[in-house]
Request: fold
Amino acid sequence: MTTWDTIIIGAGNAAFCAAHAAREQGSSVLMLECAPESENGGNSRYTAGAIRFAYDGVDDIRALCPDLPEGQVAITDFGTYTTEQFFDDMFRVTRFRTDPALCERLVMTSRDTMHWMRKKGIRFMPIYGRQAFKVDGRFKFWGGLTLETWGGGPGLVDAHTSIAKESGIVIRYETRALEILTDGHTVTGVKVRHKGQIEDLKSKSIVIASGGFQANPEMRTRYLGSGWEMARVRGSRFNTGEGIKMAMNIGASSYGNWSGCHAVGWDYNAPEFGDLDVGDGFQKHSYPWGIMVNATGKRFVDEGADFRNYTYAKYGRVILGQPDQFAWQIFDSKVTHLLRDEYRIKRVTKVTAPTLEELAGKLEGVDPNSFLDEINAYNRSVDTQTPFDPNVKDGRGTYGLSVNKSNWANTINEGPFEAYQVGCGITFTFGGLRIDPDTAQVLDNDLYPIPGLFAAGELVGGVFFFNYPGGTGLINGSVFGRLAGSSAARISK
Reply:
């Protein structure tokens, strides 16, 4: 029987980064993907590809995007996103609960990891369409998020796959890991099922990178709470928490925010799981330019509390908690040109009307009279003296409402009007396994390393609590995937 140096459970971004890192040290690497090849890549294939990292200025952007035309650079203000800013965002949005050592590893190695990925063959490009507005002939990026992977999630997965195959990494699809094998102390391999056949695979080290438990309604309800079985899954149907369970079955320590998750406003009529033909297009993240109302016709959240990068991942939970678990996003003609591309896809739950009265009658499930009263009260409260500026937190808010809007408040009074119905779409869960921040080795319940076992990606607990800065998921998987693969390779020699 062949003994592999390293077996990687999973085949998303974190798993591939682990595989590349192990392979570049000469390890023989086998990747196990329970999905068929047509659905490969885990959640990574469903992402839009935004990736957050610390950078000092345009030279970092040029190094990562060597094909970027100089003429485009000349009309763009990329700004900076320092390690201090990254730390501030991580601690602020997690309410200072992020594990300091894991957070330090994430932030301080984010830039180097990006350059490592670029050298491996992963390409990046500026997110002009979603993260920059053109003002006075110049693009200005906002919210600390500047680059995305070329081709979004599908492009990222395809690039990873090509790089892996060229380097001699073996990928087995439709192969589900069932059990981590040990000799009572050290990891020795993985029990798998492939097309009904059970097989034991031997290895010197294992990296688990198989995602969270967001596609498991039983686990969602158990850990996130009542009603979460009703959420739509944004991504892969295969992320059911099996990797977490397998590790805990051999004594791995659980860690982090098990009742927390990344959840967003998602088209109300989206399918149960992600649709690769639509990708990330069911998301609806332009709510800062309008308002959201629930079934009672009332606003229930500060749509302008912060840039959407810092609020979108927690508002899915808020929407799920509304009557009948939905909301409508409302926009008038003054701002519809600012809406993200996802609002223009064919499969969208949308109504339009020339007047607010007509719109009120089209908002399915909403009390029309209450809605019109809410709109009128909102319009009267808008600070129209403060200029509107989508590039900054402009302070253009409302006053005197039970739920005020802090920024980007515009009256909703110029037709035609557009409204989009959203529910909750869960992206990934925050609770998972405890790892050593210096090696990514999985720790047991006594906080000792489990020999030969490493983890990376969504199933690592302790990084995110309550909320999440947009684009941090991919870099988290990249940083700890690279670390896990390197560490696994070292003990396999």
User: Anything to note?
Assistant: The radius of gyration is 23 Å. The chain has 14 helices and 22 strands. The domain at 3-213+430-492 is CATH 3.50.50.60 (FAD/NAD(P)-binding domain). The first strand starts at residue 3 and ends at 9.
